[in-house]
Design goal:
single chain; alpha/beta; six-stranded mixed sheet; 22 helices; about 25% helix; binds 2-acetamido-2-deoxy-beta-D-glucopyranose; beta-glucosidase activity; beta-glucosidase
Length: about 900
């Protein structure tokens, strides 16, 4: 539902941050895509085209068995049982951050939906895995899968049926974006692959994954209207990501196509608007792109409080509302009784409700969730064993054992340590600084980021502070640490277990002491290991006026002054960065005393051990940057909008497909360290590129139309049959499916019955829908996934130690407006010293196609295409033609 835009002058809006301080003036080059059509497709106030009806699932492919099971159940359900499965019970009414109603009559439990993408949030005795951005840095599909699987087991053992992750939106349009670290990389191809393998890993355990946030959720500022008031802005709707059709397909929706192909059970639509229509109510995004083009067979849930209407959202493709209530804890719902009413009054057709419920149950059966998972044995709303059963309404409504404190970690610490080391990118290594030998006469560890938070590893709720070492960012994307091994602890153990000399200073302001220690290290020819960080997170928390998004790209905790202090006297300064993304480090690259730089990201609970493994050479670094590090924020050509430009802030994605390295390449800006860059303790050489054209069927655009929408069972249309059962005890503010009264009007529960009644043309027509050319079940037109080329190359380890190399394949699509190169393949391989390995890549049709906005389909253009294989987006060692 789009509210009319009031013609408020921009000047009429508050222009202040906290304490009346103005936001820093951001000046950056307005990097506009060279393609005028793309720019024209990213304008303020543009609208989303309507697409109805909402495609009903067909149970195609791998989903067949799950659909059969689901349909058998749906046939037996009453109207309110169906509604129950689509609706959350309300904020803090049950154990999980989101929990749907169940069907007690048939022994079907409500689904337990729980954050986060790094572990089980809001409970104890769980692991905190490295963040998505670290998985991005591994460029390792196996590790993405293994991490997903380990997280899936932990969710399962806590009784969670849906893990709310992984993340491909925010993709990372601007480095300042607060939640970028939850995802993998601003490159859609790299993200897509790691996203898909994470999903496969999670779902292999019987837990459903949730591909989120769909789509355009690229900044925290203005994602929610009440939140914006907290930082001084009165906006009338969440901000709108205005994205042209080509960029949507080639960049933002791209990884979500991989998720559908991987069989993800659920999607979460995002808070933001897209083209001025709520993402959870945008028929073009949900009905057209997701459910028709990508042929998604699972269900779409809203982000928490992101549902903005009932009937219009349902008709636009939303299947489940979370957390169920309209505003947290208000006891009202756009679904629940309103959905029951909408079906009874004929507004929502039965086929649509049946489709919603079938999709939800099929997601559960797809992963065999029904067979595997016990009920939740924890409660998100208290750490204590005993507590209120319905936390929101307090102990009057029942108390009991709500937390069984089940330790679900197995030995995942080992994998976490492995991923931590495998995701550490070596950016600089001069004068033989690394690896360390542990024979250093004096080892100094300096920096607040090396130490612990004096109030404990979980001392700040939702990790909403930056004190001590940074293991994870803040918000809903984190979990409670079972322990957090600081670099100080791990390196101290390393050195002192061999009775070496070790001193650490974790107070960045202890200038005098740091200066003295640095000088002593130099005279002893030792090493200064310096730790620094930069944090970000979700918009409901701010740290130092970083309202989710970072307000700058410099280091935090006063680290720059500390590093200047150390490097002025310590001639062997090794800098380790725990940052959520790119930071400004050009001055360190060029500083002779900074002999090495490592980016370690957000490594999770094994942080110290993982960095020690790399520093001391037990692990040879093989990670590569999953984003570009530029000299200054203006180099990226994209930025967060910090001050509303309209009452509905307009985020115009005028750079189109030119994110990150594509932008640096196109504008000829030299980065500090480019996308894909990373050193090793050994060296690699590339040779012998071979390109083989495979025989493939010609591409056939889809056509025709669907079968009519099925309905399952019949609905008793007498309103009196749907009131609360006799004698039922209602928990206050709990969302039930039943009516309060046999009068639909009275049950609606608010004045203005009918304000929810926008019914777009064609939206209730269940006779058929026509298939878009690019469409096909489970990931789009099958021709898109067909391999067209095989590319091989030889990689040789030319150094003296074994190591991992990530061979990267880039394609030049060759069009006038195409990026110089785009990533289209990567393989991480371990190679013994002096040995060679063959790396092999397959290019699918999609990988060499472009989105044609006129044909509304993917096409392989006539432009001459090239393929490159190399070490980074700028070290393209080998080159060949794609005929
Ligand atoms: C957004 O609007 C642009 C410009 O009209 C259009 O090309 C694009 O397909 C729209 N996308 C969505 C999701 O509505
Ligand atoms: C809906 O779910 C709730 C919570 O699981 C349950 O108490 C209620 O009985 C369910 N309603 C129906 C109609 O099954
Ligand atoms: C916000 O703006 C709306 C109209 O745009 C106005 O009705 C409301 O009073 C404003 N609220 C605040 C807190 O300024
Ligand atoms: C039905 O939805 C309207 C908003 O459209 C809301 O005001 C009302 O409280 C809802 N009714 C119930 C019973 O949740
Ligand atoms: C850090 O060192 C400075 C300078 O010596 C001192 O003023 C400050 O109190 C110290 N902070 C802590 C937390 O000890
Ligand atoms: C640092 O200076 C010391 C003392 O002059 C010297 O022994 C050592 O080799 C120097 N280290 C580096 C990395 O330059
Ligand atoms: C950037 O923000 C961080 C975190 O708020 C702050 O510590 C740092 O001082 C800021 N940098 C500059 C140059 O103001
Ligand atoms: C590097 O360290 C030495 C001390 O070993 C110092 O004399 C020199 O000024 C430092 N260089 C820089 C650029 O700070
Ligand atoms: C209710 O269902 C009966 C039987 O299917 C049908 O004849 C009747 O018209 C329906 N009434 C309404 C109000 O839809
Ligand atoms: C039907 O019910 C829905 C409640 O969800 C309401 O919004 C709509 O206005 C009603 N339509 C009619 C025609 O009564």
């Amino acid at each position: 539902m789009l509210l009319p835009l009031a013609c408020l002058a921009v000047g009429a809006l508050a222009q202040f941050g906290n304490n009346g301080a103005p936001f820093p003036e951001v000046t950056y080059e307005d990097a506009i895509s060279p393609n005028p059509d793309v720019v024209a497709g990213a304008q303020s106030n543009q609208r989303s085209p309507p697409k109805y009806p909402s495609p009903w699932g067909s149970g195609a492919g791998e989903w067949a068995e799950a659909y059969k099971k689901a349909i058998d159940v749906v046939k037996q359900l009453t109207l309110e049982e169906k509604v129950n499965l689509t609706t959350g019970s309300g904020w803090q009414q049950e154990q999980c951050v989101g929990q749907t109603g169940g069907v007690p009559r048939l022994g079907i439990r409500g689904q337990c939906l729980q954050d986060s993408p790094v572990g089980v949030r809001y409970t104890d005795l769980v692991s905190v895995f490295p963040a998505g951005i670290n998985v991005g840095a591994t460029w390792d599909k196996r590790l993405a899968y293994e991490r997903g699987k380990a997280m899936g087991y932990e969710s399962r053992d806590k009784g969670v049926t849906v893990q709310l992750g992984p993340v491909a939106g925010g993709l990372g349009r601007s480095p300042e974006g607060g939640r970028n670290w939850e995802g993998f990389s601003p490159d859609p191809y790299l993200t897509g692959k790691l996203f898909a393998d994470s999903i496969r890993g999670i779902q292999s355990t019987g837990v459903q994954a949730c591909a989120k946030h769909y789509v355009g959720n690229e900044q925290e500022h203005f994602r929610q209207t009440p939140e914006a008031r907290d930082y001084g802005f009165n906006i009338s709707e969440p901000g709108s990501s205005n994205i042209d059709d080509q960029t949507m397909h080639e960049v933002y929706a791209w990884p979500f196509a991989d998720a559908v192909k991987a069989g993800v059970a659920s999607f979460m639509c995002s808070y933001n608007l897209v083209n001025n229509s709520q993402a959870c109510q945008n028929s073009y995004l949900l009905n057209h792109i997701l459910k028709d083009e990508l042929g998604f067979q699972g269900y779409v849930m809203s982000d928490w409080q992101a549902t903005a209407a009932g009937v219009p959202a349902v008709l636009a493709g939303l299947d489940m509302t979370m957390a169920g209530d309209i505003r947290f804890g208000d006891g009202a719902s756009y679904f629940g009784p309103n959905l029951t009413i909408a079906v009874l009054n004929g507004t929502v057709p039965q086929w649509r409700l049946d489709d919603m419920v079938t999709r939800i149950l099929a997601g559960w059966y797809l992963v065999d969730g029904d067979a595997e998972i016990e009920l939740p044995n924890f409660q998100s709303w208290t750490p204590y064993t005993n507590g209120a059963v319905h936390a929101h309404v307090g102990p009057t409504w029942g108390t009991g054992v709500v937390n069984k404190h089940v330790d679900v970690r197995r030995e995942h610490g080992r994998l976490i340590r492995e991923i931590g080391a495998a995701s550490t990118v070596l950016l600089k290594n001069t004068k033989g600084a690394l690896p360390l030998t542990n024979k250093e006469k004096l080892t100094a560890v300096i920096g607040e980021d090396a130490g612990s938070n004096p109030t404990g590893p979980n001392g700040c709720r939702n990790h909403g502070c930056d004190v001590g070492t940074l293991g994870v960012g803040w918000g809903s994307g984190q979990a409670n640490f079972p322990y957090l091994i600081s670099p100080d602890a791990a390196i101290q153990h390393e050195v002192t277990s061999r009775y070496g000399s070790y001193e650490s200073i974790t107070n960045n302001s202890a200038f005098t002491q740091i200066d003295l220690l640095s000088k002593r290290v130099t005279e002893a020819a030792g090493v200064c290991l310096v730790f620094a960080n930069a944090d970000s997170g979700e918009g409901f928390i701010n740290i130092e006026n970083n309202f989710g998004d970072r307000k700058n790209l410099t280091l935090w905790q006063g680290a720059d002054a500390m590093i200047a202090n150390v490097s002025a006297s310590c001639n062997n300064t090794v800098l380790v960065l725990h940052t959520v993304g790119a930071v400004e480090i050009d001055q360190y690259k060029n500083n002779e005393n900074i002999t090495a730089i490592l980016w370690a990201g957000l490594p999770g609970e094994q942080s110290g051990n993982a960095i020690a493994d790399v520093l001391y050479g037990r692990v040879n670094p093989g990670a590569k940057l999953p984003f570009t590090i530029g000299k200054a924020r203006s180099d990226y050509g994209t930025d967060v909008l910090y001050t509303p430009n309209q009452p509905v802030p307009q985020f115009n994605f005028r750079e189109g497909v030119f994110l990150d390295y594509r932008s640096f390449d196109a504008r000829n800006i030299t980065p500090v360290y480019e996308f894909g860059f990373g050193l090793s303790y050994t060296t690699f050489a590339y040779s012998n590129l071979r390109v083989e054209k495979l025989s493939a069927e010609p591409y056939t655009p889809s056509s025709g139309s669907s079968e009519p929408a099925p309905t399952y069972g019949s609905i008793d249309n007498r309103t009196a049959s749907h009131t609360f059962p006799e004698g039922f005890t209602k928990i206050p503010l709990y969302i039930y499916p039943w009516l309060n009264s046999s009068s639909l009007n009275a049950s609606y529960g608010a004045p203005g019955y009918g304000d929810n009644s926008f019914i777009p043309p064609g939206s209730r027509d269940g006779s058929s829908y026509s298939h878009a050319p690019a469409s096909g079940p489970n990931g789009g037109n099958e021709g898109l996934w067909e391999p067209l080329y095989r590319v091989c190359a030889t990689v040789t380890n030319t150094g003296s130690v074994a190591g991992d190399e990530v061979a990267q394949l880039y394609v030049s699509l060759g069009g006038e407006y195409d990026p110089k190169v785009v990533l289209r393949g990567f393989e991480r391989v371990g190679i013994e010293a002096g040995e060679s390995v063959e790396v092999e890549f397959e290019l699918a049709r999609r990988d060499v196609s472009s989105w044609d906005v006129v044909k509304q389909d993917w096409v392989v253009t006539e432009a001459a295409k090239k393929v490159f294989v190399g070490k980074s987006s700028r070290l393209l060692e080998l080159e060949g033609d794609l005929e």
